[in-house]
Amino acid sequence: MSGIRIVGTGSAVPARMVSNSDLEKYVDTSDEWIYSRTGIKNRYFCEDEKLYELCARASKTAMERAGVDPSDIGICISATLSADYATPSNACMLQRELGLPTDIPAFDVNAACSGFIYSLHIASRFVDKERPYALVTGGEMLSRILDMEDRSTCVLFGDGAGAAVIKYDESAAFYGTMGSRGDNEALVCGGINTEDPHVRMKGQAIFRFAVKTIDENLTDILDHTGNTIDSVDYVVCHQANRRIISHVAHKRKAPEGKFFMDMDKYANTSAASIPLALDDMVNRGLLSFGKGQKVVALGFGGGLTYAGALLEF
Ligand code: ACO
Question: Is 46 one of the catalytic residues?
Fold first, then answer.
């Protein structure tokens, strides 16, 4: 598999922040119930923002940090299940907004919360010495498809976008896993053309799927790349729920902080959650570009899908 390095990240969220207490206006819930079961405190909900605008803002920061111009990008992939349009894709809208070249592929990937890692895998197969840079975004406007009368789902999700510029680099580590298991029972979102367009979920079934796949994929990635939990700098899981991540971290006897968590800020943003977390880590000074730090990123979600990758900064 081609080596790739993450050379720039960025993020953007809508202006409106919604706290757990704010949700008490819509459903019978409480900050205590939500925080103790999920680790979530706040999330952002869009008003009139467009998804492609958020992704464009995140991408501009990522390109600036990477020191690349739009003309340097050789492929644009956008992971999302909640794009503004069925067509044009979010990636095509980004191409227009950012002025990316027109002779490059630009398309969306729908693998729910695994979408960003799926997209990195695909991008890694396209970049080469001639066109070494790819722009990969993960972005969602999940508030558009939440049933604000269903307390078992509406408190869990949020909107946002994260972006990464990746660069072909033979010396960089990149190995990953991907898979899917067709299932429309545990997690389903009908979309706008169906009787029930909203997100519906069996929380405990997802919990079991998540802890199993995170653990198996982490083992696969560490074993295959000759790493241990101590030799990688961070593990960044899809930020669905603190209890899922703590469960795996505890089983691995991982030191405090090895498994990064920021669902308190953003809630579960599906395809955006991993790129938002990576950018959050850059902003907090935990990750720096060009330092060779290693991160295992692990996604799981609707599909059911899963994906993992050893990434180098
Ligand atoms: N506020 C207050 N009470 C609530 C809320 C709420 N927001 N939501 C549900 N409840 C109530 C239920 O009605 C139920 O009440 P009852 O016992 O009187 O019937 C009680 O709390 C327990 O409900 P459960 O659904 O069994 O809650 P559970 O303890 O399983 O917690 C949770 C739900 C947090 C979602 C849990 O199943 C979980 O951690 N799941 C992991 C999956 C996950 O986080 N999914 C997120 C998105 S999916 C993805 O990203 C791939």
Answer: no
